[in-house]
Amino acid sequence: MSISIEAAEWIRRFHPAPAAPARLVCFPHAGGSASYFHPVSAALAPSVEVLAVQYPGRQDRYAEAPVDDLFVLADRLADVLAAELGGPVAFFGHSMGASLAFEVARRLEERGTRLLALFASGRRAPSAFRDERVHEKDDDELLAEVKRLSGTDSRVLEDDEILRMVLPALRSDYKAAELYRYRPGPDVSCPVVALIGDRDPKVTEDEARQWAERTSGGFELHTYPGGHFYLNDHAPAVIRLIGDRLAR
After folding, report:
1. SS3 assignment for the chain
2. Which residue numbers delimit the Thioesterase TesA-like domain (predicted)?
3. Which of 55, 59, 97, 158 is the least buried, fewest Cβ under 10 Å from its Cβ?
4. pTM metric for this prediction
5. Choice among 94, 135, 228, 234 that is catalytic
6. Which of 95, 99, 121, 172 is catalytic?
7. Residue 94 annotated as catalytic
């Protein structure tokens, strides 16, 4: 499958599989990048082709300004994906990425594309509001929050040069996630599969169960031992779950 210049900016295909019967679009967490999903792509190929989203302001898009509005991100990605996707597709988003995946799915459904499933990981339902303001804190406090969630290699957090590179994107992503407010309207009709860690300070089981209210399709909740980045310890189990659901 050919890919447009615009899509090439936003989408990374680590293991191209144009003949795959299904595709999985992966949306990273705040401060995350497409490369986080390289192991997922390797594990699911060639039966599922993984398309990992690369936000501006990091890795090979470092020179671009980060986008600190989740709705702007959703609009741009919906335009890109609407032109690129054909055939069965599912979304996987972790943390901020889950909210973004939901908003992109809403936009695509308005254009006639219904997902096989939306996997919402480590994130409360869009309508489960928390007033969080980490993005307004100083650099030290912001980094302390990241360390608390164990989402970034501690060696990275101790390297001043790397920190200067990642802080703008990290703060921008936190702002996008924390200022996001659910807007009532058509939700999604695809099944939603919520996945959480049982010790995640960012989402409770009750907040995760509220995803059921945002879909007219089925709903499942899967809980794993661990915190916000339970994925790091349970990737094989989560990948099996995704593969099984898409194989159906």
Report:
1. CCCCHHHHHHEECCCCCCCCCEEEEEECCCCCCHHHHHHHHHHHCCCEEEEEECCCCCHHHCCCCCCCCHHHHHHHHHHHHHHHCCCCEEEEEECHHHHHHHHHHHHHHHCCCCCCCEEEECCCCCCCCCCCCHHHCCHHHHHHHHHHHCCCCHHHHCCHHHHHHHHHHHHHHHHHHHHCCCCCCCCECCCEEEEEECCCCCCCHHHHHHHHHHECCCEEEEEECCCCCCHHHHHHHHHHHHHHHHHC
2. 25-246
3. 158
4. 0.94
5. 228
6. 95
7. no
Phi, psi of 204 (to 5 degrees): -95, 165
Per-residue pLDDT of the chain (248 residues; tens, 9 = 90+): 456 677 889 999 999 999 999 999 999 999 999 999 999 999 999 999 999 999 999 999 999 999 999 999 999 999 999 998 888 999 999 999 999 999 999 999 999 999 999 999 999 999 999 999 989 898 888 888 887 787 555 555 566 677 777 889 999 999 999 999 999 999 999 999 999 999 999 999 999 999 999 999 999 999 999 999 999 999 999 999 999 999 88
228 annotated active-site: yes
5-247: CATH class: alpha beta
Q: Would you say 142 and 131 are in contact if contact means Cβ atoms under 8 Å apart?
A: no
